[in-house]
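Input.
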Amino acid sequence: MAKASSKTIEVTVISAEELLVNRKRPVKNSVSVTVKTGHFQSGSTGVDPEGRSCPAWNEKLVMELPDDASSIAVEVHSGRTVIGAATIPVTDFAGGKLPQDYLSFVSYRLWGKRGERNGIVNLSVKVKGNRNGNNSGCAATCSRPRAGIPPPDASLSGGVVTGIPVSYTSY
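Output.
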């Protein structure tokens, strides 16, 4: 059985906002973040040394993203307790909508164990292509103009995408 191919993903955990413990009081102890890209792939930040309700890390986590992955998981921990989690669809930062090696800035609502809102996590994500050198994403199709959208400017280096991903449709 052949091993599934994968891409390298760079997730920079920038910060979180409005984190609460027990739905009432702000976080007062050190907070860290774990990002999971598959059953056995994960990376974690260090703890925010100031232990505040709006922690900042700005830490880059580099790991493999299996080609068949449909989402990544982000968990915010206060000590050993998960206080918030988010599931991020891979299509929000990779696939047919964005060329490989684009940097996407995304923010997601965190949800507590009981389904309550518990803050927001801010990330940047870049997918670096297949490990075997095959750039399978939209690299082959991004040079063709889509309805109403000009092709990418070849003079731009390391494009940056910000905001919420949207679908491009012709009207």
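Residues 131-171 have pLDDT under 50 and may be disordered.
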